[in-house]
Amino acid sequence: MNRRNVFLGEHIVATVKIYTRVSLAGINEIKYPSFNGFLKSDIETPPLTSLRNENVNGTIYGSGVVQQFLLFPQVSGEIQIEPVQISVLVQQRQAGPIHSLVTFSPVIRLYPKQLSVRQ
User: What is each CA distance from 107 to 22, 82, 87, in whole angstroms?
Assistant: First the structure.
């Protein structure tokens, strides 16, 4: 989220972005939160076809924006946005007499986000 403190009806931009240090073959499934307490509008986001290198506190990650939303809070107070769950396809080299790639699909569950909405 681009801000954590907003006024009632003032929009915020929520960005679902992935950071990884392993090779991804793709995204299997995404479960977005219901965004209770908000009016939601999807921002047109180009498909994620490749990751860009991004330095986060001295560590290089492959990163990319999955989806963006405009959220308009409809109630005041502390609002919790439930986490996004992403199932990705990960490729790893398997050691042995014949080197091969193994693909598996872990589920990534992000932490909920808290937003303070004032009238």
Answer: 14, 15, 4
**Three-state SS letters, 7-55:** ECCCCEEEEEEEEECCEEEEEEEEECCCCCCEEEEEECCCCCCCCEEEE
As given in the structure block, the two tokens for residue 88 are 């990705």
The size of the chain, in residues, is: 119
Confidence of residue 74 (pLDDT cuts 50, 70, 90): very high
The Cα–Cα gap between 35 and 83 comes to 10
Q: CA–CA separation, 13 vs 17, rounded Å? A: 12
Specify the pTM.
0.79
Task: Please give the single-letter amino acid code of residue 87.
Answer: S
Q: Give the pLDDT confidence of 76-109 residue by residue, as tens digits.
A: 999 999 989 888 888 777 776 666 566 666 666 6
